[in-house]
C-alpha cells in the first residue's frame, strides 16, 4: 500500500499544481489531507469546477498518472480510461511493485455540483518524509461537506461499503455537522432516508469490514479491531446519521413551507 499511497500523493501534487483552484478533492484521500485519517484509499475522487470539461482533463490526468507511477517506482504502468461522459471521467492505473505484485487504483473526476464555497478549503499537504516530495496545496471539501456526501452515499442502493461507516465515524470525531447541507436536499428524499440508516448499516457486517476495510488500516488499528468494535461503530454512526437526517428534514420542511407561504 505504501507504493500506491506515494503514487497517489504524486498524482495529487501534479494535478493540484496544474489545475490550481479548479479541482476539489473529496472522499478518502480528502480525509487524509484534511485531518490525517488513518484509512488508506484505493482511489482518488475529485469534483471539478464548471470551467473544466472531461475532454480537457483526460490527456493531462493520463500524463500525470504516468509520471506519478514512475516517481513511486511502479513498474510497467498501464493507464486506461474506463468512463468518459459529460459529467464523469474515470481512469485506472495498473502496474507492478518491484516484487512483481500487481497493483491498481482509480481516479475519478466528476462535474455534478460543488458544495457552497464556505464548505471548501485550501490545505497545505506535507507528504511523509520518506516520499521525498515537497509540500503542496490542494483544494478540498471540508468535514461538513464530506459528512453530507458520506451520508448520501451510505443510503445509496447497491453500494454497502464498510469504508462509509468508518469514514463517518472519523468525521463524527472531527465534529462534522452536515445538517445545513443535507437540508438543501429535496424533502421527499430526506423522508426516504430519515430513520432508515440502520437498515443500510445492517447490510455491512463484520465479514465485509474484515475483508474490504481492514487491509487499508494500519496494523496497530487492525489488531484492536474486532466484530464487537465494528458493531459499536456501526450503531453509533447509524444513530448520529439518523439524528442529522431528522434535523435536516425539519429544516427543509420549514424552508419549503416558507416558500409556499410567500408564493401565495
Question: What does this molecule look like?
Answer:
The mean pLDDT is 92. The strands form two sheets. Strands 1-2-5-4-3 form a five-stranded mixed sheet. A two-stranded antiparallel sheet has the order 6-7. Strand 3 and strand 4 form a beta hairpin. The longest helix is centred in the C-terminal third of the chain and has 37 residues. The chain has two domains: 140 residues, Nuclear Transport Factor 2, Chain: A; 119 residues, no CATH class. Helix 1 packs across helix 3, helix 2 packs antiparallel against helix 4 and helix 5 crosses helix 11. It is built from eleven helices and seven strands. It has 264 residues and is of the alpha+beta class. The protein is globular and about 65 Å long. The chain starts with a helix and ends with a helix.
Task: Pick out its properties.
alpha+beta; Nuclear Transport Factor 2, Chain: A; 2 domains; five-stranded mixed sheet; two-stranded antiparallel sheet; 11 helices; 19% strand; globular
Briefly, what is this?
The protein has 264 residues and is of the alpha+beta class. Helices cover 51% and strands 19% of the residues. It folds into two domains: 2-141, JHP933, nucleotidyltransferase-like core domain (Nuclear Transport Factor 2, Chain: A, Roll), CATH 3.10.450.620; 145-263, no CATH class.
* Topology order in helix (H) and strand (E) letters: HEHEHEEEEEHHHHHHHH
The outline comes out as globular
**Largest sheet data:** 5 strands, mixed
Poorly predicted regions are none
**Beta-strand percent range:** 15-25%
Amino acid at each position: 500500500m505504501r507504493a500506491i499511497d506515494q503514487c497517489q500523493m504524486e498524482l495529487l501534487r501534479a494535478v493540484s499544481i496544474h489545475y490550481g483552484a479548479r479541482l476539489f478533492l473529496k472522499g478518502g484521500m480528502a480525509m487524509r489531507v484534511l485531518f490525517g485519517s488513518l484509512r488508506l484509499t484505493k482511489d482518488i475522487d475529485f469534483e471539478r469546477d464548471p470551467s473544466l470539461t472531461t475532454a480537457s482533463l483526460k490527456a493531462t490526468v493520463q500524463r500525470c498518472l504516468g509520471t506519478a507511477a514512475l516517481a513511486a517506482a511502479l513498474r510497467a504502468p498501464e493507464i486506461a480510461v474506463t468512463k468518459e461522459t459529460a459529467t464523469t471521467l474515470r481512469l485506472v492505473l495498473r502496474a507492478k511493485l518491484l516484487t512483481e505484485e500487481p497493483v491498481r487504483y482509480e481516479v475519478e473526476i466528476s462535474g455534478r455540483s460543488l458544495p457552497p464555497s464556505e464548505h471548501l478549503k485550501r490545505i497545505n499537504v506535507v507528504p511523509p518524509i520518506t516520499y521525498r516530495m515537497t509540500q503542496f496545496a490542494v483544494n478540498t471539501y471540508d468535514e461538513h461537506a464530506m459528512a453530507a456526501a458520506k451520508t448520501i452515499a451510505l443510503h445509496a442502493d447497491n453500494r454497502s461499503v464498510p469504508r462509509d461507516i468508518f469514514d463517518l465515524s472519523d468525521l463524527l470525531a472531527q465534529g462534522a455537522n452536515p445538517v445545513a447541507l443535507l437540508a438543501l436536499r429535496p424533502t421527499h428524499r430526506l423522508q426516504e432516508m430519515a430513520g432508515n440508516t440502520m437498515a443500510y448499516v445492517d447490510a455491512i457486517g463484520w465479514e465485509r469490514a474484515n475483508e474490504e476495510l481492514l487491509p487499508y488500516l494500519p496494523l496497530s488499528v487492525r489488531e484492536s479491531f474486532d466484530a464487537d468494535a465494528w458493531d459499536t461503530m456501526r450503531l453509533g454512526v447509524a444513530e448520529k446519521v439518523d439524528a442529522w437526517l431528522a434535523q435536516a428534514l425539519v429544516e427543509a420542511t420549514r424552508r419549503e413551507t416558507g416558500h409556499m407561504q410567500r408564493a401565495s
